[in-house]
UniProtKB/TrEMBL annotation:
Keyword Membrane recorded: no
Residues covered by the HTH lacI-type domain: 12-66
Domain of life where this protein originates: Bacteria
A GO molecular-function descriptor: DNA binding
Transcription regulation among keywords: yes
Alphabetized Pfam families for the sequence: LacI, Peripla_BP_3
Full protein name: LacI family DNA-binding transcriptional regulator
InterPro entries tied to this protein: HTH_LacI, LacI/GalR-like_sensor, Lambda_DNA-bd_dom_sf, Peripla_BP_I
SMART domains (UniProt xref): HTH_LACI
Keywords in alphabetical order: DNA-binding, Transcription, Transcription regulation
Amino acid sequence: MNDVSSRHGRTVGVRDVAALAGVSRQTVSRVLNDHPDVAPETKTRVLQAMHELDYRMNNAARALGTRRSRTLGVLASDALQYGPSRSIAAIENAARAAGYWVSAAFADAGDDDSVISAVEHLVAQGVEGIVVVAPHARTLRALDTLRVGVPVLTLHSAGRGSRGLSVDQAAGARLAVGALADAGHSRIAHLAGPADWLEAESRTEGYAAELAHRGLDPALMLVGDWTARSGYEATQAVLAADVTAVFAANDQMALGLLGGLHEVGVAVPDEISVVGFDDVPDAEYYWPRLTTVRQDFEELARRAVASLIGGSDAAASALAPIAPVLVARDSVARPR
């Protein structure tokens, strides 16, 4: 293997590591590729030699020698939204911890050719598996037309499809509505996300299911676009509907609604209670501090990476939905 790095102006390779550690080049290769048949003390000597020599692996050379790229592909759209962006970062961290690299491609979710081209680009890079951050139904339909040749998982698809990993979005919405109902609210509005987002659809389904479970009717249904502006613009419709509580499908829309209500002198939670979804880092600094539903993006990414590199058993266990958690803060109170 010809993995190399530079030290004091000359090339450092596997031969140098082997000489310093007192082992064969084959043993160094086994350590680099996480082979199980290496004694712990031998592995320690090799790793110490790599550190002393400032050795760095050349991933391309390793791929030529092992026919494995140790690279996972990530296909994403709408990467600026909080959930997808957190997941992409978490996937890279989880992959790095497992000794893998990540190659990313971005596609227009509304353009089937763009999705197909992005997948083909990743396959051409020799990736060993692909995580598709697929919040839109159309992305899933485009994927269904492809025969990729490597394992493919989807995130943010609300569990749709046979290979979808997800936080249970409907269960999270039920937690949010349940918190409001438990506080005594019966007229609960929902500020939903865009209709073409699978997670928005699941959160709306959870909202309706929890109301039905408690014998309540939907008081008001509004559709936003995930932005704080759309939450702000929903203020007048919320006030006109005479509701006492709002479940916003993400924290950004909840933030805009909090600002709109404050602007017209409506106190939260004394006059209207608000619950969000996602638990963005700023949520505990909103005024009032926002009650919301937390998603575990790190666990979602860990499962995705483990599934792609761990075989069929790991894949099967990873597909179980991850339970969300209600984070109770200050934006919910009993209605007057």
